[in-house]
Structures are given as C-alpha cells and as structure tokens.
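Quick illustration, no need to memorize.
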Amino acid sequence: MTDSFETHDIFEDKREPEMVPPDSRNEKPEIADFSQKGYLYLKENQLGTAEECFKKILDIEPDNNYALVGMGDAARKRADFETAIRYYNLCLEHHPGNNYALFGLADCYKAFKNYPKAIEIWEHYLRHDDKNVTVLTRIADAYRKVRNLHKSRTIYQQVLAMEEDNPYALIGLGHLHYDFREYEKALFYWERMIGAHSLDQIDIRVLTSVGNCHRKLKNFARGIEVFSKALEIVPDNFYALFGMADCYRGMNMHEKALEYWNRILVPDPENKVILTRAGEECRAMGRFDEAQKLYEKALNIEYDAYAVMGLALINKERGKYAEALGSLEALLQTNFKNARLYSEIADCYAKLGDMKKAEEFLVSVQRPGMRKSAAAGRFRRNPR
C-alpha cells in the first residue's frame, strides 16, 4: 500500500492577496462603484452577481485591470480554470506585472498540476513582492510536488526566518521530509507546529501526519496515542482509523487491528485494500473461513495480489500444499520483488516432501534487488 493512500496531501496555504478596488478619486465614479461592489460580492462568494458588476465595468473600459482580475477570480473560484486563465492573461497583456493576475494565473496552473509553469509565474510575482509569505509557501509547495528537496526546503526556511512559527511552512517541511522518508525530521516540524498552537487550533490532518511518522518509525504505542486524539475530534476519520489499525497490526494485536479495519469497512464495505488487511488479521488469528471470505470479496471487486497470496497461505495452512504452490508460482510471475513468495514456494515444495526441489528453487533464484540468501534464510527460519 502506498503512502498516498495512507496520508493526506499537504495542508496548503489557501490565503490570497486581497485586491483593493480603486477609489473614486482615481477612477470614474461608476467604475469605482462597480469595483467596490464586485469585490464585496466575491468575498461573499456571490460569484454571478460579482461577474455582473465586472462586466458592466468592461462595457465601459474593456481593459480595466480590476474587472479582468475580478472575472478571473470568479472563474477560478468556481474551478473554471481555463476561463480564469484567459482573463488573467488578458489583464497581463494590458497591465504586465499585475500581481493579482499573476497570483491567480499561477494558482490555475497549480490546479492543473502544471507545477513548473506555476513556479515560473510565482517567481515572476516575487520580482515585485519578494516578501510575500503566501506566495513563497506556494512556490515551496510546488517544488515539493516536483520533488526538488533543496529548493523547497530553502524557501520554507526563508518563510520561517520571516515568520518563526508560520504554520504552512512548518507543515510543508513536515510533508517534504515525509515524502523523502525522513520521518524523524518530519516529526520535528509537525510537533513544532503543534507546540506553537493550542490543540483546538490544530487541524486533524496534522495530528494524523504526526501519528503516521510514529507508525513509520515503529513507535506504535505513541502512534496509537496520537491517532486516539484525532479520533476524539473526528470519530470516523479514515486516516486515524487506518493508523490505529496499522499500529495494532505492528504490535501483533490482531483483534484490536481488526476492530479498526472493520470500522473503516462499515461506511466503505467495498474498499479492496482494507478488505485484504482485515483478511490478514483473521488469518493471523487462525480464523481462516472469515479470512477467505474477505479475500474473495476483495477479488470480486478487483484483482489484488495480497488477496491471492492470502488465499494461497490459507490453503497452505489447511495442508493443501499443491494448490497453494500453484497460486504462489503464478503470483511470482508478476510480483518477483516480494521476498516472502520465494520462501513460501520453497516451503510448499518441502511440505510436499521434495526437499531437493525446494533447495534447487532457492539456488535458482535470480532477481534484481534480492540476494538468494534472503529467501533461503527466510525459508530456514520458517520451515513449518
């Protein structure tokens, strides 16, 4: 299972620079009035009414920067990014360097996951306003997305130099190190974030991220403590339930782990990954009939290698070695990096009374990333 399934994406800074409408001394009175009203409606999320105001301005002055940016912002708020890009670009044609148009344009490209283009535009923005922490955290986030560890970390640290406990920089640094499996460093920044704010101000995503670090570091008891706090805030939070189950699994407390996998399955009974996890707990406790039903249900949803392996191991436990061997050898064709398959296959040969075949299989193992001794060692330790 991948980390993307287990963890939230980065908790991004959603703040935006607020465009100040023109005052009546510098603009025609009707334009200033429509601008004031349009931006007020934008703040209240009355997008259609805001657009009516901006269109009236454009009827009078087709290249008015306030109206063009306003139309772009309204389109962006409704996730019509292509329309938003058109208005922002139109504004920039007439008003190069308009910070509000640049900001909105970059956010649109970020929404399209075109992070290099978003970075290019945000860096253009910084030529005019190089102390804007909102833009800086967005650039750092984008560099994280393209896995540029050095630049992302440098910009987050730049933000912290300006605002010591900036939550977006601390959270971003935590996610950055987590992505590179530097869990202790991630924990440092996330716990610093928690320490700088009262618990009732902490987003549950930060708590579950801290819990995930402890889980990855095999600090399972501490992980359970943190995930429990998260569940006090949101009792059905998927990530907290997943973390609790996986921590109990790591402690070989299979009954408790199954309890939390089942809590996820109540609202999401077709979750293939969780079905296989629940099956593993039942199999570990010798409840083979329950495990078999869970694995088969997962396979009825979609092919799953873990479910196939689980069913094979159940057959092995039941003494159906030839049947188990057939499934495991078939699985090996597409899952040759799974070290356990080699030892289980060899063990099946041994259980069938063919020790020579078992030894020959282990000797013949040739695959990148795994020494033959690894499979053989697992086989010798676990001959069953």
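Residues 96 and 349 are 73 Å apart (CA to CA).
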